[in-house]
Amino acid sequence: MTNKKLRVVELFAGVGGFRLGLEGWDGKSSTSGYKKKIDSNYEIVWSNQWEPATKAQPASDVYASRWGHDKHSNEDICKVDLKDIPDHDVLVGGFPCQDYSVATTLKRSGGLEGKKGVLWWEICRIIEGKGAKAPKYLILENVDRLLKSPAKQRGRDFAIILACLNQFGYTVEWRVIDASQFGMPQRRRRTFILAYKKSTSISKQVKDLSLWVTENGLFAKAFPVLKSMKYPFAHEFAIDENLLNVSKYFNTKGQEALFENAGVMKNGKVLTFRCDSSFKGKSMLLGNVVLPLNKVAKEFLIDDSALGKWKYLKGTKKEERKRADGSVYHYAEGSMAFPDALDKPARTIITSEGGATPSRFKHIIFQDGKYRRLTPIELERCNMFPDNHTEGKTDTKRAFFMGNALVVGVVEKIGLELQSRI
Question: What pLDDT score does 305 carry?
Fold first, then answer.
C-alpha cells in the first residue's frame, strides 16, 4: 500500500458519515477530540453540505463543529466554481435519489431542474470539468430503489448514471448492501457504487465480469457472497452511448427490473445478477447499543396514557376510513414488531424517528419494565457514529440526521478494500 495520502472530496456530506468511515475516526478522548481506530490513507481535502430551501444549515453546522470550517463549503454545489474544488483522487457522496431523465430536463421543474434533481449532474460537472485531473476513483451511495426507478422504465435512472460514467471512462461495480447482513447493528439497505478510471490498475484487472462480481471485485472481497449459489436472474446487455436514447428508450416496457443487487460495467458492457451475502462473524444487535435505563432522560419513556396509541399504530388494521371528500374506502396493513426486538439488529432508521408523537415507524423498546423510544446516542450507534457526534442540535433534528445517514462501518470496509488495491 502506498504511503501517499489519497485526496478526497466529499459531496452531500451531511454530518460526515463518509469522512468517519474513510478517515477512520471513532469515539472521543477527553483531550484531543476524535481518535483514529484504523490506519487510513484518506484525507478529506474539501467537503460540501448544503440543504436547499432553508436558511438554517444544521447538518453543515455539525460537520464544521467536528472538523472545522477550513476546507468545508456550505454553499449550493450548483453555484460552486470548479476552481474552488481542489484536485482530488477520490470523489465520494450520497447523492439524493431523484428523476435523472435527460428527456424531461425542460419539461418539468421537479425533474433535473429541481432543487435536488440536479445533483447527479453536479457530479458529472466536476468530473468533466476536471478533465485529465478528474478523480480516479468514485465511491457513491444511494437508496436501493435506485436500481428500479422510475416505475414506468425500471432501471432507467441507474442506466443513465452508468452511461455517464462510461462516457467519462470509468469501469463501475455496484452492490446493494444491507449493513445488518455483515454484523452491523441496523437493517439498512443501500446501493453503493464504485468506479475506477480505465487507466487505473484496478480497472485493468476487471476481465471476467462474473468472477469480478463474485470473487475478485472490491465488493466481493469486502462483502463476500455465497459461492454455492447459481446466481439467478442474470442480465447481460450493453448501455447505449447516447444519453438521450437511454432516457427515452431504456426498458420502456418497464415490467422487469434489469439491474439486480450486484453487477459490473466495463466498456459499456453490463453483467448483473442477484447475490446473497455470506457472513460468519459476530453480529451487533440493537441490545448491544442501548444505554442502561438510568442513563435515559424521562422524555424518552412512553407514558401509560399514550401506550394504546403506539400499539394501535404498530398493529394490524382492517377498517373503513373516509377521504376528504367524504367517500369511504377500506384500509388494511399488517403489524409491526412491538416492542422492537433487542436480540436483532435495529430496523431502518427514518428521518421522522425523532419526537414523542406516537408513530408506526419509530423504534420502541421494552427495558427494565419500561417502554421507551431510542435516544440520539443510540440512533448514532445504530449507524456506527461516535457517541454524541450530533450533539448541540435538538433531539428531533439529531434523529433526522441519522435517518439521512449511512452506516459508517460499510464505508470503512469499502475504503479499506480500495486502499489496499491502490
Answer: 95
